[in-house]
Amino acid sequence: MDDKEEKSMDVPAIKLINVNKEFPGVKALQNVSFDIDKGKTHCIVGENGAGKSTLMKILSGAYTPDSGDIIVDGEKASIKSPADSIRLGIGIVYQELSNFSNLTVAKNLFANNLPHKKGLIDYGKLNTDARKVLDNAGLTYIDETAAMKDISLGSQQMVEIAKLLSLDIKIMILDEPTSALTEVEINKLYSLIQELKEKGITIIYISHKLNEILYLADNITVLKDGNHVGTFKKTPETTKETLVRLMVGRDVAYDYKVGTSKIGEEILAVKNLTSGTTVRDVSFSLKRGEILGIAGLEGSGRTELLESIFGWRSVSQGEILINNKKVKINSPMDAKKNKLAFITKERKVQGLFLSLDVRKNIAAASTRRFRKKGLVNVGLMAENAKKYIDAMGIKVSGLNQLTMNLSGGNQQKVLLSMWLTADPDIILIDEPTRGVDVGAKAEIHNLLRDLTKEGKAIIIVSSEMPEIMASCDRILVMHEGQITGELSNAEATEEMIMKYASGV
Ligand SMILES: Nc1ncnc2c1ncn2[C@@H]1O[C@H](COP(=O)(O)OP(=O)(O)OP(=O)(O)O)[C@@H](O)[C@H]1O
Ligand SMILES: [Mg+2]
C-alpha cells in the first residue's frame, strides 16, 4: 500500500456535517453530523420516526437536505437525484420495496438498461444475464422469468440486493432488510455482507433487531427524534440494554404478564380446516382471555391458516364455531360480522389506505360507528384516533398527516389501531411488531394483554421466537400445513418449537 492509498483508507466513506431536513410539522433531522468509515458495517438504530430512513433517502437522492454537507470519499457531494447517488457508488434497498411488481425478475434487474437487438428487447440475453446476477448472489432458487409479484416478499428483497451487487457499488445501504426474510435468506444475506466487506465495500445497515445489530456492526450510530445521540465502535461491552437506553432514553421493561388474564369460555373452535395443500386438517380451540401463538417456519401455513379463518382463502373442508355456534365465513365481510379482525403482515398491500390521513385510517374498519344521520362525525373520529396515538405513542405531526408519510413502524401502529377501533372479539395478527422499535414492541404487547383482560382472544403468528415465547399463553407449532405440536408457555423452549417446526 503506498502513502496515497493509505491516506484514502483514512478518509471516511461518508462524512455528514450538520444535515437538516424538515417536513411540515416534523424536524426529521437536526444538525446530524457523523462519519461512516470505509469498509465497515455501520449500523443505525433509533425508535420509529427517529429519522433513519430519511437520512438514507438523502444519501440515495430521493430527498434533498434543507442544509448541511455530505462529503463522499473526501469530496463534497451534491446528491440531487438517485442518478447522482448511483454515480457516487451508493446503492440502496429501501425499507418499503419499490419494484415493478408486474414485470419479471430479469426486467427488474435490468430495468435501466434492457439489452436490445434490432430495436427489440433481447430476451435471450436479458434472461441469461439475469441468471448470472442471481447465481452470483447465491440466489439459485429464484426464477428469472417469474413476475416479481409471484415470488415471496423475501425473495423480492433478495433480488433488489442482487441488483445492487451487479452495479459498481462502493456503499450499500440496507434499510431493515431482514424484516421480510426467512431464516435461510437472513443467513444468506449475512454471508453476502461478509463477502462485500472483504471487498472493501461499506455497508450501512438499519434494523430494529438488536441481536442482529450486535452481530453485524463494526460501528453504531443512534438517532433519536431527528438528533444524533452518538456514534461509537461496537465492543464486547456493547449490550442490547446499552442500545435501548440510548435509543429510548430509559430502560424498557420486558414484562409481558403471561398468565395474568382470566381464561374464560371457548370463543373459537376450528375443526379439520383444510385449504388446498397449505392448510391441512387443522383443529384447535381458543378461549376468551387467551393469547395463542402460532409458530413455524416461513411457508409452514401459518399465514394461510389465518387467511382461511378470516374468509380470505377458500376452504375445502372443515368448520368454524364461534361461541359454540357453527358459522359460515366465506369473505372478510362475514368474518367482520362475526367480530373477527385480521391484522396482516403486508400493511402496504393489504390494510392501510396510504393516501388517506391517520384519522381516517384509524376509523376505516368501523365507518358506521363514526356516522351520525348519514354524516361523518369528524370530532368522534379525531377523539378515537387520539386515544390510540397516545396509547401506542404513534409519532405523527397531526391527525391529518398522510399515512404514506409516516415512518414504517408508525404505519404498523396505525393498522393495529384501525382494527382495535372495530372492537373485535377475536383478533388475528400476523407479525404484530414487524418493523416496530423495542419500546413500542413492549407497548403493543401490553396493549394486547390488556385486551384479553376484557375477555377478548388473540392469535399471534410470528417468526420471532422471543416474541411468541414472551407474549403467548399457549403455542401451536405448524409444519407443512399441519399442527405438529402444542406447548404451554411454561413448557416452551426455542429448541422444542424448532423441533416441531421442522417436523421431527
Ligand atoms: N415524505 C414525508 N412527508 C412528511 N413527513 C415525513 C416524510 N418522510 C418522513 N417523514 C417524517 O419524518 C420522521 C422521520 O421518519 P423516518 O421514516 O426517517 O423514520 P425512521 O427512523 O426510519 O422510522 P422507522 O423505524 O419506523 O422506519 C417521521 O416523523 C415521519 O413521519
Ligand atoms: Mg424507516
Radius of gyration (Å): 24 Å
What CATH first level of the largest domain would be assigned? Answer: Alpha Beta
Count of distinct structural domains = 2
**Most strands sheet:** 6 strands, mixed
User: What fraction of residues sit in β-strands?
Assistant: 25-35%
Summed up, the helix count is 17
Detail the poorly predicted runs. none
| Proportion of residues in helical segments | 25-40%
Task: Tell me how many strands there are.
Answer: 24
End-to-end C-alpha gap = 54 Å
pLDDT averaged over residues = 91
**Would you identify the CATH H-level superfamily of the largest domain?**
P-loop containing nucleotide triphosphate hydrolases
Going by helix content, strand content and strand pairing, the class is alpha/beta
The CATH architecture of the largest domain would be: 3-Layer(aba) Sandwich
Briefly note the CATH topology name of the largest domain: Rossmann fold
Shape: globular
Strand order of the largest sheet: 6-9-10-3-11-12
Which small compounds were modeled alongside the protein? Answer: adenosine-5'-triphosphate, magnesium ion
